[in-house]
Each structure stands twice: as C-alpha cells, then as structure tokens.
Specification:
By secondary structure, the chain is of the alpha/beta class. It is built from 15 helices and 20 strands.
C-alpha cells in the first residue's frame, strides 16, 4: 500500500490541520496496512471554501468539456484498475476475483456512463412559453460507505461533476485508501483545482462538519438509516437538500411456478456476495409452504459451499454485530440450518455463511438489517401473504421475484414497496435508477435520474 499522509484540497496534497491519523486494518489478518490523515472541521472548512471558489468557473464550463474531463477520469481509473482491486482486497478483505470483477470494474462502467450522459444530456428545454434551465445545485458534500468504497464514490462524484457541481468527499474511515487513488485519478484527468476535494476523517467529526457546513448545498450520503436520519435532521434545519441511500431488508420472492433450484441458488449467492455487506442484498427468501422444505435443503447445501469462498466482514465491530444477530435469531426460535455464531477462523473478522429456517416475519432477523452473510427463509401461504411479508418492513430498497412466466413476476413486482426489483435474476444496469422507498432513503443514484439529483430548476417566461 502507498503511504498517504495528506488531504487533497484545491488541486494539491496538503497536511491535515492536526497530526492525527487513522490506521487502516486488513480485516483478513488484522494487520495495519496504512494510515491516512484524520481530517477535522478546519480541513472541511478549507475544502468547502475551495469548492465554493471553484463553483462559478466549473458551473459555467460547457457540458462537452465536463464530459471530456469525465472521460479522462475514466481513463485514469482504468489505468489503475489492478491497483484499485488490490487496494480494496487489502482494506475491505474482498476476495481478489470479486475485487477485480466488481469493486474495480463496476465503477469503471458507471464512470463511463456519466461521461456519455454528460455529453448528450439537455440542460435546458422549452415548455410552452418558458425555457426551463437545469443548473448545478452547487457544492456537494459526499459521504460514502465502506462496503463498495470506489463504486459509491464514483456514483456520487461523477454525476456531480457532470452537472457542474463542485465536491467535497469524506470517505468511510475503514476503507479510505481507494479514495486516495481516486483523487490521484481526478488530478491526472485535469479536473480544475477546487472542483473535487478529499478529506479523510472520522464520521462523527469530519462527516458531521461536512453535513453541517453552511457552504454545502447538497449532502449525498450512503450508509445506515440511523445516521441518515441525523443527516436529514441537520439538513432540514438549514433547508438543505439531501440524497440518502440507506439500509435494506430486501425480499426474494419465489413464486410456486419458478425454477426453485435456480432461484434458491442465485438467492444464496446474492446474500453471500461481498460477505453479505450489500444494502440491496435479498436477505429474506420467501417460499411457498409446499416448496419450503426443499428450498431450505437447497439453501443449506448452497451456503455450505461458500465457507472458504467469501472474505471477512470489514471490522471487529461488524463481526460482533453480525454474530450478535445470529445469536438473536437462535434465541428467538429460528432454526439454524447452516453456519452459526462461532468464528470460523482464529484470525481475521470472518463470519460463517449462515442460513435460518422457520423464520417468522416479526423476528428481529427478519426485520433488521444484519449486513453480513446471513439468509433468513420465510414461508408464505399464498400470493397475498407473500406480498404482505415482502412489504412488511420499514425498508424498501431492492428485491427479486421469480416465476415461470415473466408477466407473472412483473405483476407481483409492481405491487412491491421497493425501489428496484430483479425479475428472474435480471442483470445489474448502471443506467437504471437505484434508491429506496420508506426508510431506505430519498433520491436516486445512477443514470439520468442520478444526474438529476445534482441539478436545480429555473424557468424563464417569454
């Protein structure tokens, strides 16, 4: 790992106001692999002022030139893809192949999509006797999580740049090293000084200072619902716009006509991906009572194959949290059919791939986001019962429906209270809007809907 001892502010690397640092730990072996500055309120203020000063020039830059800078950023990231994958493997514990295929490749696809979108998007339109202008909202405070560290950075920074906004980024303290690589790529791409700024630091210090700063016009946050509520309250007091992508407890609904084996195997793979640290993971599998026993057996067999194929969770704190939920499930009467709370290795923050059967909708493990490799399987009586269970949490981020006929699955999906539904294993689409209903957040990321979050509207009447 590279040594990073500075923040990226106003186009240059500079030391933090204090000498405090954050140690970065490899969750697979618990070894310290790097350090970054622990930026604070003074550093945030410096970065916001730089972003504020750069805003008029960047907002006035023609969209084609902004698109060219984004294309250059994509090339700079592509040139670092191997280093990006290795860095995410080291600081998140992600298996190398998953880091290459997802943590490095997906952000590249998203960056390319916004470079193309910025070049063809219409920032004004005629509506009757009015010209409607779509203008940058201003300075963006972006606070990103640790589970998909580069993807979430690109999903916020790229549309903000395309819109003509300037940005201050505060990445997660558990995975800040890939953010430093991103800042290097921004610099190489020729993005003007002050347009993008990086301040590493702790959430309650640097993150809070960024959310509260009066010079920030929009706070874009991805993380827990609890922290999202706090940010929403701070922003509301200042009448400041927020974009919040929060928790999830997504339902994977397997209708009786579906290919049961395929639906179960893909569902287990979805939950185990990224060691279960995915907000949109289908952590509740809903199966008809007549197929329930077979589905449980299939899921237990599938989960057992992941024992040595998934990485650790990100930290000792997260490991304790996930194991605590597994113990809670056992205590509340769920039947453990794979895995369990015992740590599978003496070293590293590993959690066994775990599957619970005989889960009822009111159980804690069926209501709260666990954020680890834990699947709960619930039985339903009929389609209306399945819909009631699927919609029966405070969350609504994602989900899946399986059926023999696509029309049957789509009809059910239309009634789900969630922001995104995969039909019969539908593929990820970087142009499709991503975001939640209910307490899973407000606003959307990716594609034209993601770009729109960073624009405000003005109408001129003639």
């Amino acid at each position: 790992m590279k040594a990073h001892d500075a923040l990226y502010i106003d186009g240059a690397w500079r030391p933090a106001a204090s000498g405090d640092v954050i140690e970065v730990v490899n969750p697979a072996d618990e070894q310290v692999i790097g350090k970054v500055p622990a930026g604070g309120a003074l550093d945030i203020d410096t970065a916001v002022r730089a972003a504020r000063a750069a805003l008029p020039g960047w907002a006035a830059t023609p969209p084609a030139e902004r698109a060219a800078r984004l294309a250059a950023l994509h090339r700079a990231l592509d040139g670092r893809k191997d280093e990006i994958a290795a860095t995410v493997t080291a600081e998140l514990g992600s298996p190398p192949k998953f880091s290459e295929a997802v943590h490095a490749a997906v952000p590249l696809a998203v960056a390319a999509s916004f470079a193309e979108l910025a070049a063809r998007h219409s920032f004004e339109e005629k509506v009757g006797n009015s010209t409607v202008l779509h203008e940058p909202i201003g300075v963006v405070g972006a606070i990103t999580p640790w589970n998909y560290p580069l993807h979430q950075i690109v999903a916020k920074v790229a549309p903000a740049l395309a819109a003509g906004c300037t940005i201050v980024l505060k990445p997660a303290e558990d995975t800040p090293l890939v953010a430093q690589l991103f800042a290097e790529a921004v610099h190489e791409a020729g993005v003007p000084a002050g347009v993008f700024n990086l301040v590493t630091g702790l959430g309650p210090v640097a993150g809070q200072a960024l959310a509260e700063h009066p010079g920030v016009d929009l706070v874009s946050f991805t993380g827990s619902t609890a922290v999202g509520r706090q940010i929403g309250a701070v922003a509301g007091a200042a009448v400041k716009k927020v974009a919040l992508e929060l928790g999830g407890k997504s339902a994977n609904v397997i209708l009786p006509s579906a290919d049961l084996a395929r639906a179960v195997n893909v569902g287990v793979a979805n939950v185990m991906s990224n060691s279960g640290q995915t907000c949109s993971a289908w952590t509740r599998m809903l199966v008809h009572r007549d197929q329930y026993a077979e589905a449980v057996e299939l899921a237990a067999t599938a989960a057992a194959k992941y024992g040595d194929r998934i990485g650790p969770v990100v930290s000792a704190k997260q490991q304790a949290r996930v194991r605590g939920y597994i113990e809670k499930g056992i205590a509340e009467g769920a039947r453990l059919v794979a895995g369990g709370p015992e740590a599978p290795r003496e070293r590293g923050y590993f959690v066994s791939p775990t599957v619970f059967a005989d889960v009822t909708p009111e159980m804690t493990i069926a209501q709260e986001e666990i954020f680890g490799p834990v699947l709960t399987i619930l039985r339903y009586e009929d389609e209306e019962d399945a819909l009631r269970i699927a919609n029966g949490t405070v969350y609504g981020l994602a989900g899946a429906v399986w059926a023999a006929e696509e029309a049957e699955a789509v009809a059910f999906a239309r009634r789900m209270d969630t922001g995104q539904v995969d039909i019969n294993g539908g593929r990820f689409n970087p142009l499709a809007p991503f975001g939640g209903y209910k307490q899973s957040g407000v606003g959307r990321e990716l594609g034209s809907h993601g770009l729109a979050e960073y624009l405000q509207t003005k109408s001129l009447q003639f």
